[in-house]
Amino acid sequence: MDNMQFLALIQAYTGVGIGLIIGLGALGACIGIGIMCSSFLDGAARQPEMIPVLQGKVFLLLGLIDASFIIGVGLAMMFAFANPLLSVIH
Amino acid sequence: MADGINDNAAYSEKLEIKKVVEISGMDETKTTINLAFKKAARWQIIVTLAFCVVYLLISSVNAAISSFLGGAAALIGGYAGVLMTRRRSDQSAGGVLVALLKAEATKVMVISVLLLMIFKLYNGLVPLALIGGLAASVLVSGAGLGAIGNNKK
């Protein structure tokens, strides 16, 4: 195979990889946020006076659950704009 | 013994929130989020600067700047999320949840746009340093959670 074919192959597989990184990351974050929000609503229904205390913790936990997704987005952008795998054909 | 310590921590946290509510005039939920963000942001800044120094020592100035930009993107995104929660909203559990989800969506959007700009505009970028700084800063934002129930400010 010549270099153009290698380039096309690497770009195609990288595109699939980027889709998987973002898609599976979003899926995991959505499931986690869904479970946490249902627990928050459950707790708020049982003890409404705890809503202010729970809200701060929910906010930080949202950030933690989304952390893997945000890191995934960063990695996906790295593969999209500065793909290290392309260096093998130079 | 442990319950006594936890009760003490929860009581001092409530006192702190009450004090800030009296001084600032904000409602209690927003004050709790502000305190949590303040504690998380402090750790994010410390870790970002530590990574920056490490990359400066083991690699180059560009790597240190990239690491700093990654950490700064996470910090600015978090602040944008907090700004969204400050807007007037319904104080019921559902309203609180909607406000938090809006804040989270804003945070993700802001971080994505900032990363896109960094990748497009910064020519001397070191991608692994950027991802390292970003990952460390985002992961350590959970440190605020541990600090909520403590006496430490």
TrEMBL record, chain A:
Localisation per UniProt entry: Cell inner membrane; Cell membrane
PROSITE patterns membership: ATPASE_C (PS00605)
Annotated V-ATPase proteolipid subunit C-like domain residues: 16-78
Family from the record: Belongs to the ATPase C chain family.
Protein name, UniProt field: ATP synthase subunit c
Transmembrane regions listed in the UniProt entry: 12-37, 58-82
Coiled coil: none
Function: Key component of the F(0) channel; it plays a direct role in translocation across the membrane. A homomeric c-ring of between 10-14 subunits forms the central stalk rotor element with the F(1) delta and epsilon subunits. F(1)F(0) ATP synthase produces ATP from ADP in the presence of a proton or sodium gradient. F-type ATPases consist of two structural domains, F(1) containing the extramembraneous catalytic core and F(0) containing the membrane proton channel, linked together by a central stalk and a peripheral stalk. During catalysis, ATP synthesis in the catalytic domain of F(1) is coupled via a rotary mechanism of the central stalk subunits to proton translocation.
Record keywords: ATP synthesis, Cell inner membrane, Cell membrane, CF(0), Hydrogen ion transport, Ion transport, Lipid-binding, Membrane, Transmembrane, Transmembrane helix, Transport
Highest taxon of the lineage: Bacteria
Organism per entry: Gallionella capsiferriformans (strain ES-2)
